[in-house]
Amino acid sequence: MDLMYLHVVINPEVKILDYSKIIFPEACESVKGFFADVPRYRALELKGLDENGKQFSQYATGWLARIIQHEMDHLNGIIYTDIMDRKSLTCSCWNVVNDRGGRVELPYGVY
C-alpha cells in the first residue's frame, strides 16, 4: 500500500485497463460494522479535472484502483453490498458483541 494524498477530482471518469478482478474484503462507513468480499478490477485510468480545472489522468492498480472504484460506485448510487459476495458478509464487531454480552450500540448518524 502506498501513501496517497487527498485529491479533488471533478467530473471523474474511469477507464478499465485490466478486466481481471481481485476479490478482497471491503468495508464502508455507509454500512458500519460489516465487511464482505468484493470483486474489483485490477487496473484503471482515472481522468477528470483537478481543483484548478486542469485536466489530469492517473493510472491506478491494486489498493488505489479499489478505492477509486469504491468511490465511483458511491457517485453512481452503488454501495459494496450491491456487488459483494453475499455469503461473505461478516460483522466486524463480534469481539465487542461477545465481550459485552450482546449489549452494544452501533451509531449510524452524524455525531
TrEMBL record:
Gene3D superfamilies hit by this protein: Peptide deformylase
Pfam families: Pep_deformylase
Keyword Coiled coil: no
EC code(s) of this entry: 3.5.1.88
GO biological process: translation
Top-level taxon: Eukaryota
Keywords: Hydrolase, Metal-binding, Protein biosynthesis
Keyword Protein biosynthesis: yes
GO cellular component terms listed in the entry, alphabetical order: mitochondrion
InterPro entries (UniProt xref): Peptide_deformylase, Peptide_deformylase_sf
Record GO terms (molecular function): metal ion binding; peptide deformylase activity
Catalyses which reaction(s): N-terminal N-formyl-L-methionyl-[peptide] + H2O = N-terminal L-methionyl-[peptide] + formate
The family this protein is said to belong to: Belongs to the polypeptide deformylase family.
Function: Removes the formyl group from the N-terminal Met of newly synthesized proteins.
Protein name: Peptide deformylase
Source organism of this protein record: Rhamnusium bicolor
